[in-house]
């Protein structure tokens, strides 16, 4: 049985007097019964009025008729050190006597709460829940559960601090203490109320681990400037950030409130907080689904097709890429498409057709659909393969996020086999290149190549050429087959990249060398699993 006791009477009457809503009063009385917060607003107000009307000498406890675990109580501790009777200029404002029940009755009408700014009032009603539900249903997402998130105006933290200081001072007169951490958080109380209603409307359970998120963003323009005084008191808490429209973020405000002294706070902000004229507004109701990952292998059959869009100084150099060609076909009603693979920007690289192909993974961001049958995946694979003779895809399948991690681990551990057509400026004979076949486990120091320096950090990477096998063609050309550690820059190993890769084919042959063609013959990683045709 959840209840308010006589020790709660001062806070209940005090907060009612100052314009606080019933649910916020329960929060400041440290009531943790979720069922109580879900009761109709008018019933809660009526119960609180009855509680105040009861004769303290005859009734020590007033019970709400709701079965729930015992609530968290105000702790019997010595009053914390700090200002007792500070108002706007350092002392608390005079409030109607806690014994003046008529005042409490008059001021307890349904007005905008001076603490939650209406979050626990209007926005807990069925009409708003239906509005959220309609927004979700109209977005046409596929989901089996949901997680609900809410973004609150940062000034609510300031108002809550003022109300807490007021309550702490009042019950301090009784030798009690109200710990800030014992107050039920506004977000927590709001979710207690919303979850069962929204779950009923959507027909699926609320689940904190769900990948489908329903979020509501609240704002209260009328009180936007209330936390600005904190920037003067704690300037180091408010630093501009490129991705933030305002320095007054919720976390920055909370950090400043932890630093500011109580007497300084009360000099700048009214206690109790004033009653607003307007409710909060729900400025955004959004949905977002967790990413879906599609994996497979692909082969590229054109040397004029870069792995990714090749755009320099805003100008497209080649017409398309596997990423764009895949994006055109993998349209599963999602917001964005990201190809996850160790892509190279060399357009002349050919992935030979007799190979199982290069592993890749596609991340579908915020997809509307999340479930696909094996037949649907086969159909998508066929659609991609029929769209072009420049790329072919196989083993297309859904994978988990953790499986993507295994792909990336494989990229570090795997080996690759290449075939390179090499040109030299000076004439060569077969015996000039024969020694390359005897070199095993050749260690390279590769400084980040100039061609990728704009997107990769400058570093010297140690890579290994496991084996090489040469094939003489003519005085200026030979083919070299290499088995290398993953991450080796083959082009730079051939020409040296102005001395940034040491040793290199040019230095080994003591002449200028360059690469004309590069074919990838195999990637030694067993991922993703091969599928039966």
Structure, briefly:
The chain has 533 residues and is α+β, with helices and mostly antiparallel strands. The chain is 30% helix and 22% strand.
What topology does this entry show?
Layout: E1 3-5, H1 9-17, H2 22-28, H3 34-37, H4 41-53, E2 61-63, H5 101-107, H6 126-138, E3 147-151, H7 155-172, H8 186-202, E4 212-219, H9 229-233, H10 250-259, H11 262-268, E5 281-289, E6 292-300, E7 311-312, E8 315-316, H12 322-329, E9 336-340, E10 349-351, E11 358-365, H13 374-387, E12 391-399, H14 401-413, E13 415-424, H15 430-433, E14 442-447, E15 460-474, E16 477-485, H16 490-495, E17 501-502, H17 505-509, E18 513-523
Parallel strand pairs: 3-4, 10-18
Antiparallel strand pairs: 1-2, 4-5, 6-11, 6-12, 7-8, 9-11, 13-16, 13-18, 14-15, 14-17, 15-16
Helix pairs in contact: 1-2, 1-5, 1-7, 6-8, 7-10
């Amino acid at each position: 049985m959840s209840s308010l006791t006589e020790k709660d009477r001062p806070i209940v009457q005090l907060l009612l007097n100052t314009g606080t809503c019933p649910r916020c009063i329960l929060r400041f009385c440290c009531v943790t019964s979720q069922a109580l917060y879900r009761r109709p607003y008018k019933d809660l107000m009526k119960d609180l009025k009855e509680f105040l009307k009861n004769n303290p000498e005859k009734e020590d406890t007033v019970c709400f008729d709701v079965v729930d675990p015992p609530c968290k109580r105000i702790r019997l501790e010595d009053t914390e050190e700090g200002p007792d009777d500070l108002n706007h200029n350092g002392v608390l404002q005079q409030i109607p006597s806690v014994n003046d029940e008529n005042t409490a009755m008059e001021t307890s009408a349904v007005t905008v709460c001076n603490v939650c700014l209406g979050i626990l009032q209007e926005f807990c009603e069925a009409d708003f829940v239906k509005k959220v539900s309609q927004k979700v249903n109209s977005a046409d997402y596929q989901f089996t559960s949901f997680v609900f998130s809410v973004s609150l105006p940062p000034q609510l933290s300031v108002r809550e601090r003022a109300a807490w200081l007021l309550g702490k001072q009042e019950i301090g007169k009784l030798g009690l203490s109200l710990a800030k951490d014992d107050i039920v958080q506004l977000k927590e109380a709001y979710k207690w109320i919303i979850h069962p209603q929204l779950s009923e409307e959507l027909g699926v359970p609320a689940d904190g681990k769900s990948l489908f998120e329903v979020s509501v963003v609240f704002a209260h323009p009328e009180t936007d400037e209330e936390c600005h005084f904190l920037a003067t008191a704690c300037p180091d808490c408010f630093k501009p950030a490129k991705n933030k429209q305002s320095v007054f973020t919720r976390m920055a405000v909370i950090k400043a409130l932890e630093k500011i002294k109580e007497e300084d706070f009360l000099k700048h902000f009214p206690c109790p907080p004033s009653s607003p004229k307007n409710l909060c507004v729900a400025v955004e109701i959004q949905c977002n689904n967790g990413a879906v990952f599609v994996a497979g292998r692909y082969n590229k059959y054109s040397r004029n097709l870069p792995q990714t869009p090749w755009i320099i100084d805003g100008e497209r150099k080649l017409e398309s890429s596997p990423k764009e060609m895949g994006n055109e076909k993998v349209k599963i009603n999602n917001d964005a498409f990201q190809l996850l693979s160790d892509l190279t920007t060399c357009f002349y690289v050919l992935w030979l057709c007799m190979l199982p192909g290069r592993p890749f993974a596609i991340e579908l961001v915020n997809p509307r659909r999340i479930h696909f049958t094996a037949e649907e995946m086969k159909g998508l694979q066929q659609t991609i393969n029929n769209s072009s003779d420049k790329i072919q895809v196989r083993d297309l399948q859904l994978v988990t996020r953790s499986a993507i991690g295994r792909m990336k681990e494989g990229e570090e551990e795997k080996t690759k086999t290449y075939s390179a057509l090499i040109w030299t400026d000076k004439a060569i004979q077969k015996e000039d290149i024969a020694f390359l076949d005897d070199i095993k486990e050749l260690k390279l120091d590769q400084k980040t190549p100039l061609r990728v320096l704009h997107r990769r950090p400058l570093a010297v990477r140690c890579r290994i050429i496991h084996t090489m096998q040469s094939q003489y063609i003519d005085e200026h050309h030979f083919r070299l087959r290499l088995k290398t550690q993953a991450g080796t820059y083959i082009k730079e190993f051939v020409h040296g990249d102005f001395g940034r890769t040491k040793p290199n084919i040019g230095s080994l042959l003591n002449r200028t060398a360059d690469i004309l063609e590069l074919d990838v013959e195999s990637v030694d990683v067993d991922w993703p699993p091969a599928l039966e045709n």
